[in-house]
Amino acid sequence: MMHDEISRYASRPSPTLRYYHRETPEPPSMWYYLRDQYKRFPYLEKPLIETYKILKNLGSWCCIQSLWSTLRQIERDIEKSLARNLVAALHGITTDTHTTDAFTEMLLDCKSRFPETTPTPSDCSPKIRLLLTVLGEYRSDPSFCGIVFVQRRFTADLLGQLLGKVGDMRRFLRVGVLMGHSVNDVLRNSMKMTEQYQAVRDFRKGKLNLLVATKVAEEGLDIQACNLVIRLDMDKGSMNLVNYIQSRGRARDPNAKFVLLMEENNIEHRGHQLNLQRREQEIRDVLRANALKLEKPELVDDAWAVVRQQAPPYAFYVEKTGATVTLASAVGMLYYFCAMQVVDDVGSQAVPQYVLTLLAGETDEPWMATVILPATVPMEFRHINGRPMRSKLLAERMAAYEAIKVLYKQGLLDDYLMPMPNLTRRRIKYGDEEYIARTEQEKRLKELKSKKRKRNHKAKVADSLLRPWVADEGLITVYLHVLHTTAADGSPTAMPLGFLAVNPMPVPEMTFPIWPLLAQVDVHIDKVPTPIQITEAQLRQFRRYHYLILQPIIKHFHETSAHAYLVVPISVAPNSPPCDIHEPNLIDWQALHDATHFNSRMAKYALSSADAALDYVIQDPRHYDRKFIPLEFCTGKGPFDPVPFSDEHYQSAADGYRKVNKKLYIDENDTVIRAKLVSRKVNMLAFFNIAHNELVNAKELGDVFLLPQFCQVYPIKTWIMESATLLPSIFFFLELYYKTHELRTKISINVDIQSLLTAITAPSATMQFNYERFETLGDSFLKLALTLHCFVAHPLRSEGLLSMYMSQLQSNHELFKAGMRCGVAEYVVATKLSRTTWAPATIPDSTPSTPNTTTTQNPAKKAIDTTQLLSDKQIADVIEAILGACVHQNSTDPRIAAQALHNIYSNAFNVDWKDYIKAVRLSPRPSEMRDGGRITVDRVQKLFGYEFKDPFLLLEAFTHPTSADRTVNCYQRLEFLGDAVLGFCAVRLFFYRYPDLQPGGLVDLKDAAVNNAFLACVAANLGLHRYIDHFSSALSESITDYCEDLYSITKSRKALPPVVENSNILPSERAGSPTKTRLEEKAELEEKQREVQYWLDLEAPKTISDIYEAVLGAIFLDSGFEVEQVWEGMKRTWLPWVDAYINPSLISRHPYREMAVHLRKLGCDAWRVPCSGDPEDGGFIARLMMHKEIVSEAKGPSRKLARKYLAEQVLEV
């Protein structure tokens, strides 16, 4: 027969009976002490009764542990009472604290009298000592896997603690506890469903080898086969036939034992066990007798007809599988469905909530229940009503029953009435359509992660510089530009050099700083308003002079190159004030003629004259034809006399020449000239890092001693050449200015050229400025603009999917594509100024031509087709920096930056944000507000100083997903909007408050000022949590605990900052201690940060901070997307806290950023930190990979926290 065949393979061990003797326990002294306190504290009655039962069942140690647990819970209740009394006192209500003070004194006395101890076998009851003996028999079994079944939750909890600590059991036992959930337990012992499944998972993986479980482990959970199952309790109330059979079924191992612990000579225990065996045998006999009838499906027309005929009044079947739900099973199935959902907010925990309604009138079925499902369920199916029933319990079961039917019909349960596996790990709020959109969006985001690369891009030269020197009727029209400098003392000095260009500067004058000797000098370029005309012969002269000036400074500089501008001499005397640009004959034609018609042989005789030798630059072919500026004619010094060489290898001037040719003839009567090398430091655009390192080495910077017999006179005077060393930096900046002006015209944005130049300059260019600060500001604006667009364009999408849209639109890849479309990439400044790689801009035509002359391709054009290696991220950063520069142009008006976004990214974005108002779709408003709604609106409006045109928006900002009010949407979309505007305002504040702070510091300040802990502290002190409309006991408990902890931690601290109407932006605060080591400073900073920013140690409910952001989003929406209206509200509520607690001296660098800086200092660039989901335990795993090998990894509940934990772990090592 079928049942006999099954019994051949199914393990059904016979029960093994083990006996323990009866013993009358003596209560511990702590129990007697608390019993004596009963009259003073009546609420100790129930705990004393329960702990005495524990004493008899488990022993004295468990009794004491239970007493301590009870006292701690009462202490927490007292703290809550104190917090409530504080609120009552604020309203003028006084309370008597005598009882609470007395209990506190009693608790302190109890702690001093009865210190906690480690359990020993003598502290256990006879039953537990027998249990230890049975478990000890498996001490040498490495495959041991067992379950101890108990009746009550507190028994499971205490026994689990005991077995993990007593004797040598802790050496081989890895004990876990598995129990149910309840809020009515006196001793407060329960487990959430997520904790239950975690325990089962650890047991299955072998992390645990013993479970102490209640009946929740008897069925319904996937628990592996055990080789030992023990029933601890044998009385009738502890084990019925179902418990007996199902617990034995867990002993599925072939050699498993099923052990029953019985009291010696206890007739009730033995009789109960025999009765269970007899009843089981009777059931088996009946099943065997009817087995043939059940095994012939051809006798039944409908496979489920028999079941339906015998079904209870309320039952729902799935025809395909026969899966069934009834009133009895609906509650458990609904709990299981909710437990499989993943939510981010503790207030939206994955459990169903029931609302009971007493129907009016006389009826046999007066109760009706509504079940509220978690926020992961679509909004339209989140509130499900049941039918009227005769009791509260049946009403709740009916609501759960109806919910299961609805969930199945909507595709959230499969044909076995189990949660759909592809929906349980997601936040689904708007049904299948959103799920499809979400899935597609996740695929796109995964594709974007792989699109990180570097490419060669052409370095753009402004088209206005490439206009050839075209002659019209023998004359070429050019523009003259003159230069002068202003030193730190403010005295202006004319430069003897200017330049000609075919196209004039885009502005009449230009001023910018340079650092010739690491001291700032301001350079002024003035355009002569009237153009001049030169002949082709004069052009050749200018080109020759241009070559003579720059050749000593620039490496590989060729006279045949056709440059876009030419250096010309200006008629000024040394150290004279700036010349008048309106004067005629500014060009020094005589100096031009003398330099271009210089007779070096005739001038060589000038080297014998001490005065004449110092006027001109000296060229020494024996020193690789280098140019020197003479400093002194050393009379009385010969070639072989000792001189103070900076290079210790040379003792005389002759030593430097004989290094190249030892047989070189040197005239011993020749005179020595002390000179210095013409400066080769061309990058004077920054006073730090690489610009300083580009100075040649020390022996070349020091004095050089030359012999006139080997030298020639160079046709440029010394004072002119000293001015010429500034020209590479001036011309490089000028080219950037031309290029930036062209980009501004190309993308049609209204921003000043200097700001735009800063926005396109990468740190690798080693300029005094770069795009990093603007990129931080622009990133916050871009997030705000994209958030606003997504919010309006997708009115029915959830906050989760909107965030995905945002991630794609704001991704580096999308920004890179936008930069390529508008041609920004070729304007990026990423290459530093260097004498080996830079030359003045070269135009296509190397010779002048008439308008009718046909030009041919000139090989010199290749000089302008330079490329630079840029990463896609650099181009994306430049796009954000351009937006930041536009914000900087007018920080209170977003239209300039919005215009740039419209022109660069997509014309789908509105320039005037008020145009979005027309497209906003709001849900229908109810005819009247819910109870307390008007009070909420009035008080919050007063707090933020803003009066709402649509008060229901403010109500929406306080409506939690669990709210029973179905007429108002929850706050999540408004929180999505408010988060973006808050981040933008925070970055903008710190950008202007700390103008010298590095971008990483700005990000750290912003993160500290908008994180969940800080915002929750601000919102709680404003009292916003009191107005949250929700239906979640977990959220209430979480908020209460947080507020109490916040109150207790601030009791000993100074007064909190007041809520004020106006607060001015404070100046930058700078702090530091240069005498301390980096580790000492970091440790001191972290200690100071924890001391001042006390909220960091509290576990803040995310709901509280979300509410604050939602209010800001509501103001932003109601005001017609006016950022300044939001800022006014933030100045009243948020800014006082920032002024008091957020500044660079209190904020430490984020661990991930600290790790990145550390790795770069070590010279490692081949590292990355991929982050992926953990399929087994949930959460995410971040891995540090160096050279394609995993070095370290860490887990966290989110990607952000996983990377943070990984960074902290790496920094500790």
From TrEMBL:
Residues 738-891, 937-1120 form the RNase III domain. Residues 127-295 form the Helicase C-terminal domain. Residues 1152-1213 form the DRBM domain. The keyword Hydrolase applies. Residues 842-859 have a biased composition (Low complexity). It comes from the Eukaryota. PROSITE patterns: DICER_DSRBF, DS_RBD, HELICASE_CTER, RNASE_3_1, RNASE_3_2. The gene is DCL1_3. Residues 330-427 form the Dicer dsRNA-binding fold domain. The keyword Transmembrane does not apply. One of its GO terms (biological process) is regulatory ncRNA-mediated gene silencing. Its cofactor is Mg(2+); Mn(2+). GO terms for molecular function: ATP binding; helicase activity; metal ion binding; ribonuclease III activity; RNA binding. It comes from Rhizophlyctis rosea. This is Dicer-like protein 1.
